[in-house]
Amino acid sequence: MSTKVAIIYYSQTGTVATMANRLAQTAESLGAEVRVRSVGRDGDEAAADEPQRPTPDDIVWADVVLFGTPTRYGNVAGRLKVFIDSLGAQWAQGQLADKVYAGFTSSQTAHGGQETTLLALYNTIHHFGGLIVSPGYTDGSKFVDGNPYGVSHVTGPANDAPVDDTVNTALDHLVTRAIGISTKLNA
Q1: I need a surface site. Which of 6, 14, 76, 89 has the fewest CB within 10 A?
Q2: Where are the beta strands (DSSP E) in 10-110?
Q3: Are 102 and 45 in contact (CB under 8 A)?
Q4: How many of the other CB atoms lie within 10 Å of CB of 70?
Q5: Considering the entire predicted model, what is its pTM?
Q6: Angstrom distance (rounded) from CA 109 to CA 89
Q7: Torsion of CA 114, 120, 121, 125, to 10 degrees
Q8: Which residue range is the domain that position 56 belongs to?
Q9: Residue 160 · residue 16 · CB < 8 Å
Q10: Nearest CA to 114 among 162, 187, 122?
Q11: What backbone torsions phi and psi does residue 100 show, to the nearest 5 degrees?
Q12: Number of domains in the chain
């Protein structure tokens, strides 16, 4: 039985979407079944190149949930938070508990609040009864990217710094670790 991974994100400039796609590719290469969902950009219509919008069923279905958000003043972006806040019925039924959760983020500056954004995201996961599987310093790559709470990327003020090998390696480690822990828990 393959691990089911839901990657739910908001991306304003495309960076978090790029990160989400890398996570999906790596998860699929590990044999996972993957759903990639975007909470959407401005406007009510999804762009043609955008994944489906998430539903509560995507979270209920998953063994592993990876949330991605740009930083907003050191916090989760409102669009993702609105989706998360809509999960009250599933929370009340215990359908969000006992799953592996982790997060990824981006900001324009090196000290733009990536770590506080991930920690703020994890406050909700504690309420879910979810199992936070942060990467910590469990791989040498984490000493290079420097974020033990998840994965983060600095885009620069012009939002033009591409997601590089350092970030891709950290993303690969994050999803590999999350799937590995989920597999052990469900064995």
Answers
A1: 89
A2: 33-38, 64-70, 100-107
A3: no
A4: 26
A5: 0.94
A6: 37
A7: 140
A8: 4-185
A9: no
A10: 122
A11: -85, 130
A12: 1
Q: How far apart are CA 7 and CA 116, in angstroms?
A: 20
- Give me the residue label for tokens 């989400």: 20
Contacts of 14 (CB under 8 A, 6+ apart): none
10 Å Cβ neighbour count for 48? 5
The amino acid at residue 3 is T
117: left (phi over 0), alpha (psi -120 to 50) or beta: alpha
- The closest alpha carbon to 133, from 90, 101, 156, 108, belongs to 101
Token pair for 72:
């907003």
Distance of CA 6 to CAs 52, 58, 77, Å? Answer: 12, 6, 18
CB atoms within 10 A of CB 133: 22
Q: Which two tokens stand for residue 47?
A: 């762009």
Determine if residue 81 is left, alpha or beta; phi over 0 gives left, psi from -120 to 50 gives alpha, anything else beta. alpha
Pairing of strands 4-9, 64-70: parallel
Tens digit of each residue's pLDDT (9 = 90 or more) over 95-116: 999 999 999 999 999 888 999 9
CATH number at residue 88: 3.40.50.360
At how many degrees (to 10) do helices 165-185 and 15-29 cross? 50
Comparing CA positions, the residue from 80, 152, 161 lying closest to residue 116 is: 152
